[in-house]
Amino acid sequence: MSEKKEPSVLQGFKAFLMRGNVVDLAVAVVIGAAFTNIVNAVVKGIINPVVGAIGTKNLDHYSSCLSSACRGEQGIQIMWGSVLGATLSFVITAAVVYFLMVLPMAKYLARQEARRKAKEGTQEIIEVTELEVLKEIRDALVAQRGSGHDRQ
After folding, report:
1. Phi, psi of 64 (to 5 degrees)
2. How far is CA 39 from each of CA 60, 77, 133, 146, rounded to the nearest angstrom?
3. In this predicted model, what pLDDT tens digit does every residue of 11-45 receive, in sequence order?
């Protein structure tokens, strides 16, 4: 009897790394990191100056004090400007990802699916037509055989 040899840890690790989803995930992380720089630049270069027209350019300076003595770093401060800046970054990132990646890909996949279904529909029509022709041939052969038996 032959014994199955267990794959080595190194072979298992290599197989894990070569799986498609791991490579896709690594690419997504690298692209996401690069994309984060773009979003941060948009927030710092466009959003913050627009907000700066109303107040300060840096959203991190917006805060509220919970205690009566708030001077500098003293007191209990709620840094809602930082939260607003992070929220704007998230919304911009989500909008760009949706409108530039998700929506076009969904439309592309829908078109591909429609083409596939149209192709399947055409193939079904051809198969039905072939089936009808085969039935006609069968009926003709049966009719010939039946008329040939009558003559004998």
Report:
1. -130, 145
2. 17, 27, 63, 82
3. 888 877 777 677 778 888 888 888 888 877 877 78
